[in-house]
Specification:
about 600 residues; alpha/beta; five-stranded antiparallel β-sheet; globular; 22 helices; five-stranded parallel β-sheet; GMP Synthetase, Chain A, domain 3
Length: about 600
């Protein structure tokens, strides 16, 4: 199949026009694939275009107008992409939401976005959504991809997906072109909700020009730095996350590639071997899991495999530090015929690169995979930048403690206080209905990322710290600690708390129990009031656990606090764990309780 000519990107005014052009070029070639009855089944580019046009026309027939918001609640599947493209083709705005959202989260997003239509994939997902939907003053229509049971008392009009995606579309490409004429680069394509430091999720308005910018910039790296072929993507990160939305959907569209939808994390390894992807968009946590699996598998074999892995890691570390040796060449030749092909087969045998983003990658993990012949590119960005700002690339040298040079057509500079500032088409239009936060984030056209860093001699961005306290877990999900801490300290049993979980698989907390409540509990139980003794009392800790569980009931899976420990004393100005304005000093607390925090992530 012929290579896509990336020089045509300048002609596109919106993401719909890009899709239409690629659909015309790929025609009957497979585009979207998923497992059904144990077999991979594909929808061609042209059939996808037909469904997109039909669904876009159906949305208009339902009375929706340009700029109306349409909320999308679904796991990754072909219908996700079709719905997303159709919403945009109709001139409307997609509002993706996580399938792990609570009823309260759905309520906030429906009310804040003013979505008139909500699309949901399954009956199970509708159970959390429907109570919020019925209380909404804006939502009028629910569309179910699969059969959904709705009470007759419900005032929301219900429509079946199948009735809306099959129309009399004879010339889908021509109709897509006609639809695309009414959409400008400045129009908002989607509103993606992300947690801010204040707690309540904020809607980031991404314009068509921002999505085009990311698709072009990321695609340019693939075309210029790797051998050209038809690209195969395996999509498994949530499409409601900006990272997968751009990297796992619009980048493949820009490249004219195929998208396979994984069956889930538990089947990811087998899906990789079946699909044989050329590019994978991943988060650091996956690298950590795969690293452990590879090490255990090789150690189980013992003997020669263990020796070869040791040599590969030794040579890889040496070469990464710039100390290549001629006498390593014979061993490298052996590794290229023995160990590395076996590792390559674990990733399907065609993998060009795994792109890590959403959270910081430990450089040692990146070097590990590079040593075994798996190319790892670390990227950087945030929802407010559509989201990709930069990415490592072979052409500029892979330095694992940097996030690479900026994408094409992206300006980056470092402010006087070290903050990374970004300007270009990738920058969001602003936060939906939140001018105050928009003005704080964008000044004179520059996006203030909240990250501290520098640009090295090769033009690569290195991130050293974050100005903001937003937690980014090992899967790239954002969690606002202040929100969780505020909820914890509303409980009568807890007076202070610090939530932790940066680069970790789940949230934990350091807790200071309320002294008055503790005294009362000790008296009721006939126990001596001694904090040190209470800390090791199972019944006492169980009561605090009950308070944490009450909070967890109103949190998403990502936010839930799995474990907690007690501090030695309250946070105070005197012990330098609070500022004069009574804000906790996270770095001081982390340093003091490092061992305790690390212990909560051990089995």
């Amino acid at each position: 199949m012929s290579q896509i000519d990336f020089s045509d990107f300048g002609e596109f005014q919106n993401i719909v026009a890009l899709f239409a052009k690629r659909a015309g070029q790929r025609d009957n070639a497979p585009f979207l694939s998923c497992k059904a009855d144990g077999q991979w089944k594909s929808i061609s580019w042209i059939d996808t275009a037909r469904q997109v046009v039909a669904f876009a026309k159906s949305l208009k027939d339902l009375g929706l107008e340009k700029g109306d918001r349409v909320m999308l609640v679904s796991e990754n599947r072909p219908e996700w992409c079709i719905a997303d493209m159709a919403i945009m083709a109709a001139g409307m705005v997609t509002v993706p939401t996580y399938i792990t959202n609570t009823e309260r989260d759905h309520q906030h997003i429906i009310d804040d976005s003013g979505a008139r239509v909500v699309i949901v994939s399954t009956k199970k997902l509708s159970e959390t959504l429907l109570p919020a939907l019925t209380r909404s003053a804006h939502a009028e229509i629910l569309i179910g991809m699969e059969p959904i049971t709705i009470s007759q008392k419900n005032q929301i009009a219900f429509h079946k997906w199948e009735d809306l995606v099959h129309g009399d579309t004879v010339e889908p490409l021509e109709e897509l072109d006609i639809l695309a004429r009414d959409i400008t680069r400045e129009d908002v394509a989607c509103i993606i909700y992300t947690s801010g430091t204040g707690g309540a999720p904020r809607g980031v308005m991404q314009q068509h020009k921002a999505l085009l910018h990311n698709a072009y910039g990321a695609g340019k790296i693939v075309i210029e730095d790797f051998t050209v072929s038809e690209e195969i993507f395996l999509s498994f990160l949530p499409l409601s996350h900006a990272y997968e939305h751009s990297g796992g959907q619009f980048l493949p569209i820009g490249l004219g590639g195929q998208i396979y939808y994984a069956e889930g994390l538990e089947k990811l390894a087998s899906n990789i071997e079946e699909v044989q992807p050329t590019i994978m968009v991943v988060v650091p946590r996956l690298f950590e899991v795969l690293r452990q699996r590879i090490i255990k598998a090789i150690e189980k074999q013992g003997g020669a495999p263990v020796y070869l892995m040791g040599k590969a890691l030794e040579i890889g570390a040496r070469e990464y530090s710039g100390k290549k040796r001629k006498r390593d060449l014979p061993m490298k030749a052996v590794l290229s015929k023995t160990l590395k092909p076996k590792i390559s087969q674990r990733f399907g045998g065609r993998l060009k690169a795994m792109v890590s983003g959403g959270a910081p990658l430990n450089p040692d993990i990146g070097i590990f995979f590079q040593s075994l012949g798996v190319t790892v590119l670390q990227g950087y960005g945030q929802t407010e930048s559509a989201p990709i700002i930069s990415c490592n690339r072979p052409a500029t040298g892979l330095k694992m403690d940097t996030v690479g040079p900026p994408l094409a057509n992206t300006e980056v500079r470092i402010a006087e206080d070290g903050e990374i500032l970004v300007r270009g088409d990738l920058v969001m239009k602003g936060y939906w209905r939140n001018k105050k936060e928009t003005d704080r984030a964008i000044k004179d056209g520059w996006l203030h990322t909240g990250d501290i860093g520098y640009i090295d001699e090769a033009g690569r961005i290195a991130i050293t710290d974050r100005k903001k306290d937003l937690i980014v877990n090992d899967k790239g999900d954002n969690v606002a600690p202040q929100k969780l801490e505020g909820m914890l300290t509303l409980q009568p049993e807890i007076i202070q708390a610090m939530v932790y979980g940066d680069k970790r698989p789940y949230m934990t907390a350091l807790i200071v129990p309320d002294p008055d409540w503790s005294l009362e509990w000790a008296n009721d139980e006939g126990k001596k009031f001694c904090f040190e003794e209470l800390q090791i009392c199972p019944a006492y800790k169980s009561k605090i656990r009950d308070a944490v569980d009450r909070v967890n009931k109103n949190l998403t899976v990502t936010e839930k606090i799995r474990r907690f420990e007690f501090t030695e004393e309250p946070f105070s100005i005197e012990n330098e764990e609070m500022t004069p304005s009574m804000k906790i000093r996270r770095h001081m607390i982390r340093d003091r309780y490092e061992a305790l925090l690390n212990g909560m992530y051990k089995s």
